[in-house]
Structures are given as C-alpha cells and as structure tokens.
Design brief:
globular; 24% strand; Rossmann fold; seven-stranded mixed β-sheet; 7 strands; alpha/beta; 36% helix
C-alpha cells in the first residue's frame, strides 16, 4: 500500500493527533504523517511531534503571508491530505482553493447542528438527547462540507460539559481513522 503524505493541523492537546500517529504506524493504515502545523507554540501536539520525530511548524495566523508559508511547506513535503484535528482557526477560501487537495475536519457535534465553538454548552442548553461527532470535508463555509463519518451517543441526565467532551473525544478517536480509511477506499 502506498501511503498518502498527510499533514495534521492542531491547536491544543493533540489527542486526535496522538491517535492518528499511532494508527499511521500500522502498515495497512493509508496515511503517513509527514508534517504537523500548529498555530499555538504551547500546543501539546508540538511535544508529540518532537517525541515521534515528525517535522512541525508553528505559524502566526495573524500574518498575511501565513497561507503562502504553509502552502509552500505542504508542496515541499508532497502533502496530499490535511487533517484538521482541533485546529481552532478558520481555513481561508484562498488556502482551500490553492491547496487543491483533500482537507478533512473532525467536529464535536452531529453536524449540521452546532457548527463553530462552544458545542458542549450549547448541546446542554438545548437539552439534546444525543450528541456525537462528525468527520467532514472542508469547504469554504464553516463546518459545512460533505459528511464522511458521523456517530452519536445518548446524553445522560448527569452529563456536563466535561463528561460530554470526554465521551466525544473517545468517539472521535474511533471515527477519525475510520473516515480516513473510508476516504481512501473511495478514491
């Protein structure tokens, strides 16, 4: 199997990144993580990159030249897939157009519900009976692209933002790799 060169964009703890790194070591998993990009120099994912000898860059998304810097690096590394894993910045329309390859995102809700931030508080405020997570293609609108995989779980009466986040992350660790496998099975 020829693995696809992949870049993972992160901003925080990197639990999905860590899971993808572990999965990528499997000969039958379709990606090699060749680069990690973060907009947060203190992200735990930077530690994971160093620990696993994966090249990384920290970008200043406030700079107008940021997109060009990232695009040049992606081209140099021959990246054909970007996985957004807790990346807390909106990818520009220009970037999406100029990358011209596949970008996927994992989102902690059952899209199209609860796009954007503060998902867990909004789910609880609206007394939802279930929630979950979604892996979708990235397009020019926020959390809007075609769904690849989506899974749900029931919300218990004693759940709070912390427990919903924990349950969602466990489910994310299952469906992100599942979506990647499905993606390359369909290409």
């Amino acid at each position: 199997m020829v693995k696809k060169n992949t870049c993972v964009f992160i901003s925080g703890q990197g639990s999905n990144l860590e899971n993808l790194i572990l999965r990528s070591r499997d000969n039958f998993f379709p990606i090699n993580i060749k680069l990690i990009i973060s907009n947060n120099k203190n992200a735990r994912g930077i530690y994971l990159a160093k620990k696993n000898s994966i090249p990384y860059i920290v970008v200043n998304t406030k700079l107008r030249t940021c997109d060009n810097q990232i695009l040049r690096t992606l081209k140099k590394k021959k990246i054909s897939l970007i996985c957004l894993a807790g990346y807390m910045k909106i990818i520009s329309k220009n970037f999406i157009k100029n990358f011209g390859k596949i970008i996927i995102n994992i989102h902690p809700s059952l899209l199209p519900k609860y796009k954007g931030l503060n998902t867990f508080s909004r789910v609880l405020k609206n007394n939802e009976k279930k929630t979950g997570c979604t892996v979708h293609y990235v397009d020019e609108k926020l959390d809007n692209g075609q769904i690849i995989v989506q899974k749900s779980f029931h919300i218990n009466s004693d759940d709070n933002e912390k427990t919903l986040k924990q349950k969602t992350q466990r489910l994310e660790h299952q469906i992100f790799p599942e979506a990647i496998i499905k993606l390359f099975r369909n290409i």
